[in-house]
Amino acid sequence: MKNTLPFLLSLALAATGAAAETTGEPELLPGETPEDRARNISLKLEIERSIERGVGFLEAIQSEDGSWGNMPLPALTALPAHAILGDPRFRRGEGVEVPDSARKALDLVLSHQQESGGIYTRGLASYNTSIAIMALLAADDPAYHDAIRTARAFLVQQQNWIGEPGDTSDPVSGGIGYGNSLPHSDLSNTHLALEALYHSRVLVEDEGPDTPDLDWDAALTFISRTQNLPETNDQPWASDIESERGGFIYTPVESKAGEFTLPGGGTGLRSYGSMTYSGLLSLIYADVDSDDPRVIAAKEWLERHYSLDENPRLGYQGLFYYFHTMAKALTAAGVRELNTADGRSVDWKQELALRLFDLQRTDGSWVNEGSARWMEDDGSLVTAYALLTLQHIYYNL
Question: Are residues 332 and 291 part of one domain?
Fold first, then answer.
């Protein structure tokens, strides 16, 4: 998947395109019809209005110190700041206008940068650092580059090993977890860390071969061990049955969607929606080609289980995280339509945007009314997820 366009670059190109629209009609994209263009322009205008209302909500509830949320986690401030920075109103022409609300939030986030380079308070070091890096990158401000570089170097060191570095004999080696002292690796934190490393690598390209970097081969081994695909996963639970094949789980030893009995005996681990999108993203960030069987199988599972009513296999749990990861993965993979199990060809961008319009509250916010798990009862967190989701759609229409 070498030709994947990073989201941050697509934002810059979209901003230039927005300026070009005032001077002339841009060329149609490959496969795009004039009718598609008209529909997309209309959808973009609706998304702009929805984003403006969501940003207004976030700015209205921001604390005096620049933070959001009820827990002192930099990530819970970095995510809303990132969402504000993606508002099309702040991305006209070249560069990014950083509004006071986002600047205040990023200053607070950076006040938590440790001597190690990590950006965290009392725990969850890699999780907070990964999300902080993405918010700082979105500001497109050279003043933040040194902080991003040191945070990036810290994140590289968060790769988990059971035994010696480079030894992947243990199934959880090579991945990344929340960043505590336990030998924990999971696909959610791994995809967030790979995302931050992937998008920040442009800042270290000129630093020479001795620049610390992730053991990407080991990370890919870990990722493969979270996929139900026996030909590339050496774990005994990996299943080839149609309902599971190609999907991903949380860790090589656990699925949040539970277990099932394998044909012939043994225990299988159920694939589910949000982790399968996380897995697809992780493969993209690891520069796996689009014709690789892992990528193909992941897309096929996602088409078979396409849903905007739930996080497949988890119901309402993590629904907005699922929407966000879905938008990131499908835009990064260049997927325009999904061919679902019921025979439909789905314009997923339009359907997902309309779903989010329906879920937006009158005050501009979103919240997961069906589940408080993973903090999705927090309006600022869920609103940030929803805004970032709409922005991925908007900048790739």
Answer: yes
Q: Give the closest residue to 283 by CA, choosing from 365, 225, 207, 210.
A: 225
Whether the CB-CB separation of 268 and 237 falls below 8 Å is answered with yes
- Tens digit of pLDDT for each residue in 138-180? 999 999 999 999 999 999 999 999 989 999 999 999 999 998 6
d(CA 72, CA 382) in angstroms, rounded, equals: 17
Domain residues for the domain of 190 are 66-207
Whether residue 370 is contained in a domain is answered as yes
Pairing between β-strand 267-269 and β-strand 259-261 as defined by DSSP bridges: antiparallel
Rg (CA), the chain: 20
pLDDT reading at 35 higher than 50: yes
Burial class for 230, CB neighbours closer than 10 Å (0-12, 13-18, 19+): middle
Q: What is the mean pLDDT of residues 24-45?
A: 75
Flag whether 176 is in a domain: yes
Q: Give the pTM.
A: 0.91
CA 273 and chain centroid, separation: 13
Query: Are 245 and 368 in the same domain?
Result: yes
- Counting Cβ atoms within 10 Å, is residue 226 exposed (0-12), middle (13-18) or buried (19+)? buried
- The count of other CB atoms within 10 Å of the CB of residue 194 is 26
Please give the pLDDT value at position 4. 37
Q: At what angle do helices 74-85 and 125-138 cross, to 10 degrees?
A: 20
Q: Indicate the Cα dihedral angle 159, 161, 166, 170, nearest 10°.
A: -130
Instruction: Report how far apart the first and last C-alpha atoms of the chain are (Å, whole number).
Output: 20
pLDDT for the residue numbered 264: 87
Distance (Å, whole) CA 88 – CA 100: 16
Question: Which helix (DSSP H) or strand (DSSP E) does residue 259 occupy?
Answer: strand 259-261
Q: Which two tokens stand for residue 252?
A: 């090589």
> DSSP class of residue 375?
G
* Residues contacting residue 257 through CB under 8 Å, at least 6 positions apart: 249, 269, 270, 271, 272, 313, 314
DSSP states of 10-79 as a string? HHHHHHHHHHHTTTSPPPPPTT--HHHHHHHHHHHHHHHHHHHHHHHHHHHH--TTS--SSS--HHHHHH
pLDDT digits over 48-94, tens only?
999 999 999 999 999 999 999 888 899 999 999 999 999 999 987 77
